[in-house]
Amino acid sequence: MFKKTQPEEKQAQAPTQPAAADPVMVRTRSVSVIGPTLVFKGELSADEDLVIQGTIEGTIAHHKKNLTVGKEGRVKADINAASVTIEGHVEGDIHGDDFVELAKSAVVTGNIFCGRVKMADGATFNGSIEMGSPRTSQAKLSVAEDRPRESSRDPARTQNLGA
Amino acid sequence: MPDEMAERMQRAATGQPSCIGSTMVMKGDLSVDEDLIIEGCFDGKITQGDQRLSIGENATVRADIRTGSAVIAGFVEGNVYGSSTVVIKKTARLHGALTAEKLCLESGANLEDVVLSGNIARISTPPSRNR
Fold first, then answer.
1. Contact between A25 and B27 using a beta-carbon 8 Å cutoff
2. Which residues are CB-contacts of B81 (< 8 A; sequence separation ≥ 6)?
3. Is the pLDDT of residue A2 over 60?
4. Is residue A140 domain-resident?
5. Is B27 within 8 Å of A42 when comparing Cβ atoms?
6. Please, is A156 exposed, middle or buried when counting C-beta atoms within 10 Å of its C-beta (0-12, 13-18, 19+)?
7. How far is CA A105 from CA A38, A122, B96, in A?
8. ipTM of the complex
9. CA pair distance A67, A106, nearest whole angstrom
10. Which of B104, B18, B108 is CA-nearest to residue B54?
């Protein structure tokens, strides 16, 4: 709340003396943030944690790291990440190597491929969930590899059980 | 980790600038109405309101850029238009046309292939020990 005063002060200084803008502008951050007014159409990939509060349309390849779609976030893209937390709107398939979490404000249309899933009461989800090996997102191959094992349960045996 | 994430979310919600980190690669069209920091790679088009844009030292931007004010310290290929002040740091490498209401050039900036237009407000020589 009170933090808002800081950027205002900086903005007030900037126009009067351009020199003052230099040190303020160049900053380093370890987390990428897509702000609420940002609209991007295209391909995005990264190797660091990412918070999306804006609008993204295209593809998101975000292997190995965490991705959060905030309450104001609107994503129309297939998402690949180590872990995915959704609080906003997502239209597309979500591949979370580790886990996928939908908060109660989440609205998701698409399929989820993940190792673990957590869905809050109130979340809106239309699609299917496929839980396979932790690397589901990398390739459906790994899921395919798992499948034969599941299906290797003898049909005969299941029939026996049924009988 | 959830606490950390919550903190980031809060930061994002409190009007902090958007930040395209050093490992990020974006290809496409971007429009934004808040401050933006680019430290990674961007390819495409950037349209910004009258806010501030910062292109970091290690950033690579191939794009036509329309912004309010800007500080450029990295590599930019494309046409840049700033409706306010554009500062070119000594580490900047520019290719294209640069138009701004006010231009601040730091000596050492590589402007070989640049067409400049605007009022040059300040040409500075950074102190030698300046990083």
1. no
2. B65, B66, B67, B99, B100
3. no
4. yes
5. yes
6. exposed
7. 20, 7, 45
8. 0.81
9. 14
10. B18
The rounded distance, in Å, linking the Cα atoms of A89 and A72 is: 8
Residue A151's pLDDT band (boundaries 50, 70, 90)?
very low
Q: Is residue A64 part of a domain?
A: yes
CB B91 within 8 A of CB B73: yes
Q: Which string of b and e fits B86-124 if b means at least 16 CB within 10 Å?
A: bbbbbbbbbbbebbbebbbbbeebeeeebeeebeebeeb
pLDDT in tens, B11-47: 444 557 899 999 999 999 999 999 999 999 999 999 9
Cα separations (Å) of A132 from A113, A114, A153, A162, B52? 7, 7, 17, 26, 45
d(CA A29, CA B129): 24
Domain of residue A144 covers 29-162
Within a domain: residue A71?
yes
Q: What letter would DSSP give residue B33?
A: S
Report residue A16 as tokens.
């009067």
Beta strands in chain B (DSSP E): 18-20, 25-32, 36-38, 41-48, 52-55, 60-67, 69-72, 75-77, 80-88, 93-106, 110-124
In chain A, which residue's Cα lies nearest the Cα of B11? A33
Q: Is A39 close to B85, i.e. CB distance below 8 A? A: no
CB pairs under 8 A between A and B: 151
Q: pTM to 2 decimals? A: 0.74
Whether B5 and A51 lie within 8 Å, measured CB to CB: yes
- CA atoms of A56 and B130, how far apart (whole Å): 38
Domain total for chain A? 1
